[in-house]
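Annex B.
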Amino acid sequence: MTFSVRMCNGCVHKEYPDRGNTCLENGSYLMNYLGCANCHQRDFVLISNKATEDDDGEEIVTYDHVCKNCDHVIARHEYTFSVVDEYQEYTMLCMLCGKAEDAISVLPDDPRQSAPLF
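Protein Churchill: predicted structure tokens.
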């Protein structure tokens, strides 16, 4: 028996809001939560089915945002972390929390931030 996870656009103000460089490894972006479209309550959002896997040096964290009252799946959250060249790269994709990416240099001085000498 196969179960598919459907996400609910009726539970959020805006689907996949742009969060700039704010990547959440855990938690929920409650400012975007309207309330549960299934039971019509606006209560806590729980995290369930959390899984972490390492895929060839890339860490992938996934979990479901679930209504506390009726176990309705609000959204599926995916967060990734990897090191590419001299940067730590982060991404997030979630209907509730939004989409975001960030890259941080592992060097003491970020080459992207240094001013040209001439």
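Confidence is low (pLDDT under 50) at residues 1-5. Strands lie at 45-55, 58-67, 73-84, 87-94, 98-105. Further annotation is deferred to the next reporting cycle.
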